[in-house]
Structures are given as C-alpha cells and as structure tokens.
Amino acid sequence: MSAVTLKMLAKHLSLSVATVSKALADSHEIRQSTKTLVIEGARELGYVGNPYASSLRKRASKTIAVVLPEVADSFFSEAINGIESVALQEGYHVLIYLTHEHLAREQAIMEEFKSGRVDGVLVSVSEETGSGEHIRRVLDSGTPVVFFDRVCDGPGTACVITDDFESSYRAVVHLAASGCRQPTFLATPTNLSISMNRLKGFEKALADLGLPRHKDEVLIFGKNEAENMDLLRAALSQPRPPDGMLVCVEKHVTYVYQLCAELRICIPDALKVIAFTNLKTAQFMSPPLTTVSQPAFEIGKTAAAALFRALKRASKTIDEEVIVIKSALVKRESTGSSPVSPG
C-alpha cells in the first residue's frame, strides 16, 4: 500500500494542503479545533510527515555541508575529524561534497545550498576557483559560509587558514642551513591561495638569503600526471639540477621520491626535500621526510566553531575575520636532520 501523502490527507479532510501543512506545524495561524481535526485525521489514515521537508520549511536541517577538493589528502581527512568533533557536540550531521578540483562542480554544489538544504557550509575551494561569486550568492541567501585552508577573493566571511607564507619562508631557511644553494618550489596553480602564499614565502626567503635565481626555480604542476613527471624529470636531469625542493602539496612528494629512485639521485645527499603534508607515514619513508605539518584537526575544529557561532544567532550573520593557526616544521633525514626534530 502506498504511503499517505499530505495532499491525500487534505482531500480526506476537505481542507487545503496549506492549511493541513500549517496545522501539522502547529502554526499560530490555524485554530486549535482545526489542528485537532488534522491530527486525528492523520492518525486515522496513518500519515507520517517528512521530517526533512519540515526542517527545510523551518530553515533548520540540523545538517552542515563540507565542500572539499578531495579526501585522499591527509590534511582534509584530519580537518573533517575536527569539524565532526564540533558538529556532534552541537547535535548536527555533516554532509561531505567533493569538487574533484573542478570549479563547475563547486558552483553546482553551492547552488544547491541556496534553497536551505543545509544550515551552513564549510568550504575549501578548488584549484580552478578564482572569483567567489557563487559563494557570495549562498551567503546572500541567508546560509552562513566559512572558508578553511583554501580561500578565494570576493565573499566577506570568516576564514581559518595556516601561516603559509611564514611556513614556506622557514622551510627555505632550513634548506639553506642544510647546504642548499639552488632550491626549487614544486607548486600547484598559483591562483590557489595556499600555492600563492607559499610561493611568496619561498621567493622572499631566496631574496633575504641572497640565493641565486635559476631556470627551474618554480615548477607548476597541473592535473596531468605524465606531464608533471616529465616536467620534474627534465629539471632533475639538468647539468646543474636543484639541490633542494619544497613541495607545495602532499600528493606531489611521491613524484619526487619516485623520480629520485629512477634517476639514482640520493636524498638528502644530492637533493634535500621538504613537503607540506600531514602524512603519518612521512617518518617511515626512505629517507624519512621533513614536513611542514599543518594543524588540520584544529583548523577544521576552529572553522566549525565559527560556523556554529553564526548559526546560534537569530540573524545567522557571520563575523568577517581571518583566523591563522601556525604550522610546524618537523625536521627529518630528507634534509639531513636527525630523526624528528621540530623547529
């Protein structure tokens, strides 16, 4: 037997769908006698309301969305754990949406949120995202949005990030102190906020340290793995190859280790390597990898807390602020350091 719908209940009671809906929602617009009639009719027919639809009407789904470029990166996995730790305390569910680094997908996802599908949104933008107009429209619809890690220009809202510029600067200083005179920055597309800030920190450190500029100073990786490998192979095969490498994102450090093994380049003797990563296996790589370890759990937790502060306000307005949480340089053998030396 098919489920009884709101329309069927209204027809049975000779009332409008709107009246029945308001009566079930205990609206002040409906007389108590009508509410009693509707409740008794619902029991008689076995009508069961849709709690999700009801929550949408009340603008409270008890759900927040987290929009990510990917989940394979250990940073995002830890950030989700931080977000969920807060959401669970607040009695909220968390929905995960993946953009797979595509702006069009991100725009389509954000468009869904304008209808009130979720109460709030935490977003780390794709590498294709420049303008944040699609995110601005969600904010304008009354749904609060908080950026974490990756941000974009445009929307005025809360952002929770790490000290990418300073962390990159410290990493280059460590490479230089370890004997590097020709470091290379292995970047993602520089329209991405994290890549741009890390590149600026890299270049500022080179200038302050008086290190010579060179042809393969910055290598920008795209989405094509074969092309990325060819670009890196060409740089490492030069007569005077880089003697140090700062890797902007976790997934690219695998290329460096793989090609060094293929080309018989010894890490750290011929090439010293640092990567921005939260990989727990970094200490077990051969050699153990020096990392810029980002406080991913804390970033996720702080971003969620900012979102829930807004959700608890009647206006749902969110403070326009930038919260910066520091990363840590963990020195290991890939830069010639003794095992696990935070600095």
TrEMBL record:
Return one GO MF term: DNA-binding transcription factor activity
> What Pfam families does this protein map onto?
Peripla_BP_1
Q: Which residues form a coiled coil?
A: none
User: Which positions fall inside the HTH lacI-type domain?
Assistant: 4-58
Which UniProt key words apply to this protein? DNA-binding, Transcription, Transcription regulation
- What InterPro entries does the entry give? HTH_LacI, Lambda_DNA-bd_dom_sf, Peripla_BP/Lac1_sug-bd_dom, Peripla_BP_I
Q: Which SUPFAM superfamilies match?
A: lambda repressor-like DNA-binding domains, Periplasmic binding protein-like I
This protein is called what?
Answer: Substrate-binding domain-containing protein
Species per Swiss-Prot/TrEMBL record = Hufsiella ginkgonis
Q: What is the lineage of its organism?
A: Bacteria, Pseudomonadati, Bacteroidota, Sphingobacteriia, Sphingobacteriales
